[in-house]
């Protein structure tokens, strides 16, 4: 980091993960996105996305983030 540059804002990082969450929900549901917000859940923040489904119903989907989706890689799982 160079002199005079500020560290990235935490909101900027959350905003990026929020946009990723919105994209994931839109792709998986095909619905119209109505909004998104960060909400506290079990000691951390998750993204809650509000969307309208194909029947016109308003629904919510919680997206914990991409890091929580990936199972840990282990060397002892029998794969080579």
UniProtKB/TrEMBL annotation:
The UniProt regions of compositional bias labelled Basic and acidic residues, in chain numbering, are 11-23, 50-80
**Protein name, as recorded:** DUF4124 domain-containing protein
Extract the ranges annotated as region (Disordered). Answer: 1-80
């Amino acid at each position: 980091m160079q002199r005079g540059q500020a560290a990235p804002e935490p909101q900027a990082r959350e905003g990026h993960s929020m946009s990723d969450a919105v994209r994931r929900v839109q792709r998986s549901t095909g619905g119209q996105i109505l909004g998104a917000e960060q909400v506290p859940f079990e000691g951390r923040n998750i993204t809650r996305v509000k969307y309208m489904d194909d029947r016109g119903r308003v629904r919510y989907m919680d997206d914990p983030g991409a890091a929580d989706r990936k199972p840990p890689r282990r060397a002892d799982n029998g794969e080579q």
